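Notes to self, DUF7878 domain-containing protein:
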Amino acid sequence: MVNLTIDFKLDPALKLEKKILHQRSGKLLIDVEGELEIRIDHSCFFREPSLALLEMGVSLKEWRMNDPKGTSNFYHYTMEHDEREGPILAFIETSKDKWILFSIWQEFKPEDFIPTDGLLNAVDQYLTELEKLLIKRFNIRYSDFIRTRKF
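result:
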């Protein structure tokens, strides 16, 4: 079975203005940055040293809330990038229980499919770990943005 991991490192020097923290604005979505690395088995599929981690977390959380069984494709575009070039990250179901990953910044084209359980487990682990860190450092949660964000 193919192993998928989504790891991140929040910038340890990241400081957020108290005014922005209280407003829970769209600016905060892109200000919470860090390194994101996605690995398929032991190979680095995607690495970006400065990605808006909260913005991606909110997109993934909404996808999981709207589709808990993982039956619809996921496409993540960022406010900081022209979406005409393609998604920063996409999960595309090719057939039942078989997914491929795509990114305009991918380091290789995966040949193996990722099973639904493996994909959802990796996404859920990322969301859980990121939210724990966001609560600890800044006292913010995904739900603070899902209610007010326009999708």
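- Residues 116-138 form the longest helix (23 residues).
- The chain has five helices and six strands.
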